[in-house]
Amino acid sequence: MERRIGSLFLVFALLLLFSLAVAQDEQKETSVKPEEKAVEFQIIEMDSFNYAAVEMTGSFEQHDVAFQTIYGEASMQGLGADWVPFGIYYNDPSSTPVDELKWEVGFALAGEHEVKAPLKVKTWGFTLLATRVYEGSFESEAMGNAYAELVGWTTTKGYQPAGPIMERFVSMPEQNAEGQWVGKLEIWMPVAKVQ
User: Fold this and answer.
1) Which domains does the chain have, with CATH numbers?
2) pTM, 2 dp
3) What gap in Å lies between CA 21 and CA 81, rounded to an integer?
4) Phi, psi of 111 (to 5 degrees)
5) What pLDDT band is residue 152 in, cutting at 50, 70 and 90?
6) For residues 187 and 66, what is the distance between their CA atoms, to the nearest angstrom?
7) What is the number of alpha carbons within 13 Å of residue 126 lying toward its C-beta?
């Protein structure tokens, strides 16, 4: 447990190095107006974008390794620091064996960049999204409930899930009094209109 907390501290220390640029980049990535981001649940349309990613397989407890890799490589490859980090999750962890989970961490690329391994250039092509803001512990039941609430709300609006989930870190995570990491996320869920 101490090793995991130490690793998480390192990850979030790396995030702190780039936190000043996060607020500037938040408005660059989508066509959503800043005042709309304060709405807890919404359906938005956005442009597709390219991003750099580190692909992962297995336990989500590898986030420290993934974030260390992406921040280290972004620095060494001169990809800048003015980006908002995110995770993309391709499987439902409640029904997929841990060793088969597919996920990645990444950041949007502004313009053309030469990206070298272990990073890969990928395209986020989902342009219709259901979104919600979640603020709280990343280790709590409330985090899981946030997903269920988003799916439920989306269904009432006549949409269904249509792609992998993205979590965008929009505030600097920090530890609360109980030692849990807390922060603010935007959850992006691609959707399609139910026919």
Assistant:
1) 2-193 (3.20.80.10)
2) 0.78
3) 7
4) 80, -165
5) very high
6) 19
7) 18
